[in-house]
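Protein folds are increasingly written down as C-alpha coordinates. With that in mind, we are printing a sequence and the C-alpha coordinates encoding its fold.
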Amino acid sequence: MNEVSNLSNEIAEQEKAEFRNNVVDFEANLRQTEGSFIGDNAVCPLKHTFADGIYVREIFIPAGAVLVGKIHKHGHPNFLMSGEVEVVTEGGGAERLVAPLSMISSAGTKRVVYTITDTVWVTIHHNPTNTQDLAKLEKIVIADSYEDYEKFKKIESNKFVSLYKKIIKKLIS
Protein backbone atom coordinates (compact mmCIF):
# COMPACT_ATOMS: atom_id res chain seq x y z
CA MET A 1 0.00 0.00 0.00
CA ASN A 2 2.88 2.40 0.73
CA GLU A 3 4.11 2.09 -2.87
CA VAL A 4 0.66 3.05 -4.17
CA SER A 5 0.48 5.96 -1.74
CA ASN A 6 3.98 7.13 -2.67
CA LEU A 7 3.16 6.92 -6.37
CA SER A 8 -0.07 8.82 -5.82
CA ASN A 9 1.77 11.56 -3.90
CA GLU A 10 4.42 11.75 -6.62
CA ILE A 11 1.76 12.15 -9.34
CA ALA A 12 -0.02 14.83 -7.28
CA GLU A 13 3.24 16.76 -6.84
CA GLN A 14 3.94 16.54 -10.59
CA GLU A 15 0.43 17.81 -11.38
CA LYS A 16 0.84 20.65 -8.88
CA ALA A 17 4.18 21.66 -10.41
CA GLU A 18 2.72 21.49 -13.93
CA PHE A 19 -0.28 23.63 -12.94
CA ARG A 20 1.95 26.20 -11.24
CA ASN A 21 4.27 26.39 -14.25
CA ASN A 22 1.31 26.81 -16.59
CA VAL A 23 -0.17 29.63 -14.50
CA VAL A 24 3.17 31.44 -14.27
CA ASP A 25 3.67 31.09 -18.05
CA PHE A 26 0.10 32.26 -18.72
CA GLU A 27 0.62 35.30 -16.49
CA ALA A 28 3.91 36.16 -18.23
CA ASN A 29 2.22 35.94 -21.64
CA LEU A 30 -0.72 37.99 -20.42
CA ARG A 31 1.66 40.75 -19.26
CA GLN A 32 3.07 40.91 -22.80
CA THR A 33 -0.37 41.26 -24.37
CA GLU A 34 -1.24 44.70 -25.70
CA GLY A 35 -3.80 46.40 -23.48
CA SER A 36 -2.95 44.30 -20.43
CA PHE A 37 -2.52 45.94 -17.05
CA ILE A 38 -1.14 45.11 -13.64
CA GLY A 39 -2.41 46.09 -10.23
CA ASP A 40 -4.51 49.06 -9.25
CA ASN A 41 -5.52 50.98 -12.38
CA ALA A 42 -8.42 52.82 -14.01
CA VAL A 43 -9.84 49.57 -15.47
CA CYS A 44 -9.73 47.54 -12.24
CA PRO A 45 -9.65 50.04 -9.38
CA LEU A 46 -8.81 48.82 -5.90
CA LYS A 47 -10.35 50.09 -2.69
CA HIS A 48 -8.37 49.56 0.52
CA THR A 49 -10.00 49.76 3.95
CA PHE A 50 -8.66 48.96 7.40
CA ALA A 51 -9.89 47.89 10.83
CA ASP A 52 -7.92 46.80 13.87
CA GLY A 53 -5.78 43.89 12.66
CA ILE A 54 -7.65 43.66 9.36
CA TYR A 55 -6.98 44.74 5.78
CA VAL A 56 -9.90 44.67 3.32
CA ARG A 57 -9.18 44.80 -0.41
CA GLU A 58 -12.01 45.37 -2.89
CA ILE A 59 -11.56 45.23 -6.65
CA PHE A 60 -13.93 46.06 -9.49
CA ILE A 61 -13.30 43.92 -12.59
CA PRO A 62 -15.20 44.69 -15.81
CA ALA A 63 -16.88 41.99 -17.90
CA GLY A 64 -14.53 40.23 -20.31
CA ALA A 65 -11.38 40.80 -18.28
CA VAL A 66 -8.81 38.08 -17.70
CA LEU A 67 -6.55 38.38 -14.71
CA VAL A 68 -4.20 36.33 -12.62
CA GLY A 69 -4.30 36.76 -8.87
CA LYS A 70 -1.41 36.85 -6.50
CA ILE A 71 -0.18 34.06 -4.24
CA HIS A 72 -1.51 34.68 -0.75
CA LYS A 73 0.57 33.46 2.18
CA HIS A 74 -2.39 32.82 4.48
CA GLY A 75 -5.89 31.44 4.18
CA HIS A 76 -8.44 34.26 4.10
CA PRO A 77 -12.11 35.02 3.43
CA ASN A 78 -13.27 36.08 -0.04
CA PHE A 79 -16.59 37.58 -1.02
CA LEU A 80 -17.83 37.71 -4.59
CA MET A 81 -20.16 40.65 -4.03
CA SER A 82 -21.53 40.91 -7.56
CA GLY A 83 -20.91 39.30 -10.90
CA GLU A 84 -20.19 35.96 -12.48
CA VAL A 85 -16.72 34.57 -13.18
CA GLU A 86 -14.90 31.52 -14.47
CA VAL A 87 -12.02 30.63 -12.16
CA VAL A 88 -9.18 28.13 -12.39
CA THR A 89 -7.16 27.18 -9.31
CA GLU A 90 -4.65 24.52 -8.40
CA GLY A 91 -6.93 22.87 -5.88
CA GLY A 92 -10.33 23.49 -7.43
CA GLY A 93 -9.75 23.18 -11.16
CA ALA A 94 -12.13 25.20 -13.33
CA GLU A 95 -15.38 26.41 -11.85
CA ARG A 96 -18.02 29.07 -12.38
CA LEU A 97 -18.71 31.35 -9.42
CA VAL A 98 -21.85 33.46 -9.16
CA ALA A 99 -22.41 36.24 -6.62
CA PRO A 100 -23.33 36.57 -3.91
CA LEU A 101 -20.79 34.07 -2.66
CA SER A 102 -18.43 33.75 0.28
CA MET A 103 -15.52 31.32 0.46
CA ILE A 104 -12.23 30.74 2.18
CA SER A 105 -9.11 30.76 0.03
CA SER A 106 -6.43 28.36 1.15
CA ALA A 107 -2.92 29.67 1.66
CA GLY A 108 -0.92 29.45 -1.56
CA THR A 109 -3.93 29.89 -3.85
CA LYS A 110 -3.33 31.65 -7.15
CA ARG A 111 -6.31 32.14 -9.45
CA VAL A 112 -6.83 32.73 -13.14
CA VAL A 113 -10.11 34.63 -13.49
CA TYR A 114 -12.28 35.46 -16.50
CA THR A 115 -15.16 37.80 -15.72
CA ILE A 116 -18.40 36.98 -17.48
CA THR A 117 -20.09 40.08 -16.07
CA ASP A 118 -18.88 43.17 -14.22
CA THR A 119 -17.63 41.86 -10.89
CA VAL A 120 -16.82 43.13 -7.42
CA TRP A 121 -14.54 40.85 -5.37
CA VAL A 122 -13.52 41.47 -1.75
CA THR A 123 -10.71 39.77 0.17
CA ILE A 124 -9.98 40.13 3.86
CA HIS A 125 -6.48 39.73 5.26
CA HIS A 126 -4.82 39.69 8.67
CA ASN A 127 -2.90 42.92 9.31
CA PRO A 128 -0.90 42.16 12.47
CA THR A 129 0.99 45.47 12.50
CA ASN A 130 -2.04 47.63 11.59
CA THR A 131 -0.01 49.19 8.81
CA GLN A 132 -1.76 51.09 6.04
CA ASP A 133 1.39 51.09 3.91
CA LEU A 134 0.39 48.96 0.91
CA ALA A 135 3.99 47.93 0.14
CA LYS A 136 4.40 46.63 3.71
CA LEU A 137 1.03 44.87 3.53
CA GLU A 138 2.03 43.14 0.30
CA LYS A 139 5.10 41.72 2.08
CA ILE A 140 2.88 40.39 4.89
CA VAL A 141 0.10 39.02 2.68
CA ILE A 142 1.65 38.11 -0.70
CA ALA A 143 4.38 35.75 -1.86
CA ASP A 144 6.14 37.00 -4.99
CA SER A 145 6.49 33.48 -6.42
CA TYR A 146 5.64 29.89 -5.65
CA GLU A 147 9.27 29.43 -4.54
CA ASP A 148 8.89 32.30 -2.07
CA TYR A 149 5.63 30.80 -0.84
CA GLU A 150 7.27 27.40 -0.22
CA LYS A 151 10.11 29.11 1.70
CA PHE A 152 7.55 31.04 3.75
CA LYS A 153 5.67 27.81 4.58
CA LYS A 154 8.87 26.15 5.73
CA ILE A 155 9.79 29.10 7.96
CA GLU A 156 6.28 29.23 9.44
CA SER A 157 6.30 25.48 10.03
CA ASN A 158 9.63 25.73 11.85
CA LYS A 159 8.25 28.58 14.01
CA PHE A 160 5.23 26.43 14.90
CA VAL A 161 7.39 23.43 15.78
CA SER A 162 9.63 25.61 17.97
CA LEU A 163 6.64 27.08 19.77
CA TYR A 164 5.09 23.63 20.21
CA LYS A 165 8.36 22.32 21.71
CA LYS A 166 8.48 25.25 24.16
CA ILE A 167 4.90 24.57 25.27
CA ILE A 168 5.59 20.85 25.74
CA LYS A 169 8.75 21.58 27.77
CA LYS A 170 6.81 23.93 30.03
CA LEU A 171 4.04 21.41 30.52
CA ILE A 172 6.38 18.57 31.48
CA SER A 173 8.75 20.60 33.68
The chain has three helices and eleven strands. The chain has one domain: 37-172.
